[in-house]
């Protein structure tokens, strides 16, 4: 039997539908049978009615634990809070409406484990699903709803939420709806066994540390998140070029999450160093070299600038005799396991201006001690002395020496340091010359 509706009957039906829509504006759509949370089992959407607003709506959803921390998994029977945040940066003074439901991800079965609902909200059932929604127009876009996780074995759940930012004109115009969802897997106890092999830092302040990870019981979907000093972040299983500090690793394997902490330590050894190279002229062509204040040095390499060298010695002081006068660049390389440091010093060796033939036939004359410390007495024996003169290597006479002659001996007291020539004039008219080093 066919039913023919009159214009009047059609008008009445339209008025009833319009009334339901207007009622849903203030009291929530599920209260009049409309499910529009954005879930795949909903056939209605808020945008079917609300339109034309100048708002820019954003909707975020978080599941918070008892310490108000956002969680990415739930544990059966634990208490949580679903936090909904609706906001807009444009438009007139905003007011808010929302609708949210929870279902398991595999079968879309209803998860009705809501707690005591906040003021201004209520629950309603549409097609065997429970919806939490506004009971009146809300002045705040932040809605916090208690939720208890379902029994173990439920698996992953999904919260579907629709939000509507409205101008509160009592109509469906001038509004902007939006929707969002979050997926929360059920927590699984971890059977992961994580072993770390740490390479500590041998040289202070360097980035030579490393951590290698070995995991038992992981699946092919394992991911890694490393956090460490100086905003360090990495997503590989093994990490290197590390500075000293504590490194946190978050391992996700399927729905299993584990966290480990590894500490990379460092030694106090630094790159070797020294203040300078000290030189001392032993004789005209012989020099003593030593490193001043060497630190953390295990090997010394000396390059004397004349083609000769002494490599990898443990001595910080060394003697060297040059073959000829000239200018030489002396190089010292200090080494240890952390690296090396290089110092240089230029020395000038001047030619001996006193004729070497003068320094002869002195077998019968004894000069001691030689070398001698400044202000220490020097004794010369073996001849009858008439006069004693002191010269530097350039032949200039030196007067900063106290000389006392007693027949066949003489006492000298030097007030300066260096290499000098002692010229002895004897009573028989001959002269004899001897070198001396004063330090």
Tell me what you see in this structure.
The protein has 439 residues and is mainly beta. It is built from 1 helix and 31 strands. It folds into 4 domains: 7-184, Immunoglobulin-like (Sandwich), CATH 2.60.40; 193-264, Immunoglobulins (Immunoglobulin-like); 276-349, Immunoglobulin-like, CATH 2.60.40.10; 356-438, Immunoglobulin-like, CATH 2.60.40.10. The strands form 8 sheets. It has a 6-stranded mixed beta sheet, covered by helices on one side. The chain has a 4-stranded antiparallel beta sheet with strand order 13-12-15-16, with no helix packed on it. A hairpin with a 6-residue loop joins strand 8 and strand 9. The protein starts with 6 loop residues before the first helix and ends with a strand. The relative contact order is 0.09.
What is the global morphology? rod-shaped
Low-confidence stretches: 7-24, 353-363
Backbone CA Rg: 48 Å
Strand content: over 45%
- Mean pLDDT across the residues is 85
Structural class by sheet pairing and helices: mainly beta
Q: State the strand order across the main sheet.
A: 1-9-8-4-6-5
Distance between the ends: 134 Å
For the record, what CATH class of the largest domain applies? Mainly Beta
Helix content class: under 10%
CATH T-level fold name of the largest domain: Immunoglobulin-like
Q: How many helix segments?
A: 1
Largest sheet, described in full? Answer: 6 strands, mixed
